[in-house]
Each structure stands twice: as C-alpha cells, then as structure tokens.
Amino acid sequence: MVVEALMVAGVLLLPVPALVLGATRVRHRLGRSSVHERADRVELALLVTGRLLGLLLLLVLSVVTLLACIGGIVRERTLPSLVYVFFVADLLVASLVLLTVGRRGRRPARRSASPARR
User: Fold this and answer.
1) 48-70 residue pLDDT tens
2) Interior/surface letters 4-36, b for 16+ CB within 10 angstroms, e for the rest
3) What's the rounded Cα separation, in Å, for the pair 28 and 115?
4) pTM for this one?
5) 54 with 48: CB under 8 angstroms?
6) Would you call 73 exposed, middle or buried from its count of C-beta atoms within 10 A (0-12, 13-18, 19+)?
7) What's the rounded Cα separation, in Å, for the pair 18 and 30?
8) Are 22 and 100 in contact (CB under 8 A)?
9) How many Cα atoms are found within 13 Å in the side-chain-facing hemisphere of 24?
C-alpha cells in the first residue's frame, strides 16, 4: 500500500506538471526560421505533431498508472508488474517533456556597465 501511495505521489509531482507545461507550450518554437515558407510550415507541423504524440503518451501512461494505483489502494490488491513499468516509462517521458518543451528561451544578454561616468 505504501508503494502505491508513493507511485500516486510520484505521478502527481512530475508527470502532471510536465503535462500542463507541455500543453501550454505546444506551439512554441525557438527563433529558427528558414528562407522558404513551406519548409517553415512543414517543420512546425512536424514539431507540433511530435509534441502532441509525446503529450498523448504521457497522458495515457499517467491515467493508467493513477487508476491502477488508486484501484489497488481501494481494493487492497497487489498491482500487476506492468504498472511498475508504466510508472517508470511515465517518469521518463515526463522528464523528456520537461527537458525539451519545458525550457525557456534564452534571455538577451545584458550589456555590461561601463566604469566611466556618463
């Protein structure tokens, strides 16, 4: 029962915030652009499709893990071993989402202050 509770807490602490952050930044793209408009549209379509597939995988893994763990706690039954595999896969996909989509763009560099008086 303790393991199931830890798994529920683990899913609520890492994958759910990653899912929310990833969903808010699906269409965000770094400042790269090419000369051709068609290439830009194709690149954006591939980027959005890949991110949506990753978020869908994250959502499915999180829901299956949460339902199995909460059901195991309520009914006081042991979990199938595949639930543990789903939990680890959920954490890995969540870390992938956080490392790729969750990072913010670089801020412009600040100019260094001149020591001379103005």
Assistant:
1) 888 899 999 999 999 999 999 99
2) beebbebbeebbbebbeebeebeeeeeeeeeee
3) 39
4) 0.76
5) no
6) middle
7) 19
8) no
9) 9
